[in-house]
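Hi support team,

I submitted a single chain yesterday and got back a structure, but I'm not sure I'm reading the token output correctly. Could someone confirm the output below corresponds to the sequence I sent? I've pasted both exactly as they appear in my results page.

Thanks,
R.
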Amino acid sequence: MGRKEALDQVGTGTYGVEGERLDWTYYDTAQIAVATLTHRMFTTPLGQGGKTLDRTNLTQAGNIPQGQQLQVKAIKIMYKSALVKATAAVQSFYDLLSQTTVSIKLQNKETMGQWKLQELVGAATLFAVTPTVAGDNIYYIQPKYHGIYPLNTKIILAALTPFEVTLQHQVAPAAALADDLLTVGLAGTLIRVT
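Hi R., thanks for writing in. Yes, this is the structure output for that exact sequence:
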């Protein structure tokens, strides 16, 4: 390959009619409230209902924009407390993880996936401990808390196909968790026509 061909090769690929494939996460955030048992996520787009870019990056209500397809290969869970918590809130958080389910639904299809939040964050063991005697620290099984759940079978979210992620608390969250933020990310390959 000559110099001209090499320069031509490294100067192409940014723009093209064939489209592009990107490593991408579409995410949406729910605010925990004691009185709200169901959060329908990805239904309010960026710029509406107080949704800023730190809360969602989906630009259309409940569907992937025209000219895009997201091949979801993993679900990401992120959690941020609104305030500094007392140690008793650890058990409340564990209860939330154990008593909350997450479902992905596409219009006119059966549920595409349903999990306990505890499974999605990778916390197989949730065991809060208060030492019986000061300094009495007994080690116990620790979960591998990672917040990324890889899917064995990808979920295809095609352009303009309505979908939502439902976060369902089976028991009302504790008051100690009110106003905390829970973000669900749908991560995978975004195919985008340019």
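A quick pointer for reading it: Helices lie at 3-10, 89-98, 117-121. Let us know if anything else looks off.

Best,
Support desk
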